[in-house]
Amino acid sequence: MNHGMIAEITCVFLLFSLAGFCFADDAPGYTLYIQGGESLITKDTDGVMLITIQDVVPYIFADFENRNQLLPVSEDSIFSFPMNAVLVFSGTDGDSASFVQVSNLSVSDENNALTLQIKPREFYEGEILKAFAKGAEPIETVDKEKKGTTSVYLEVASITPENSSDECRECLAWCSSFQNAKVQCAYYCGGC
Question: Backbone phi, then psi, for 119, in 5-degree steps?
């Protein structure tokens, strides 16, 4: 075998390897955005922190691969707990952002109040919500009485099941439940 052919094979191998790495690094996930009005933070009898957001817009704004979709706020199949989130409190004195981990979520019967079971996070290591990391402060220090609106940005990691047919079927079933969403199921399901 001559050196030119070895170089060609090596280049083709490197090209396919790099293309695979670029694809894997392309989208770490997506965000879900929920907007509401004033919020109240309480603790239940077990000491678990809860935040209740009033006057919630009844739709979740989902940003799938830069394609936007509105989903009903009551659609619970898109949540996989625990989820990283950032809460942005806005008012006349500016915005305050706080990172939390959401372990449960419930919507009132009228879809106008959202209650999140949260755990404060001191820092955020991910990629999806890192735009909020600068200037973020602990949720306990935010003066929520001066804030008129509360925004929730939830982090949803890409689904990358292994090459198991059961996992692929489960992922594709989950993905296809968004019938009107312009989601490329194979993309989010690891090439199933």
Answer: -130, 125
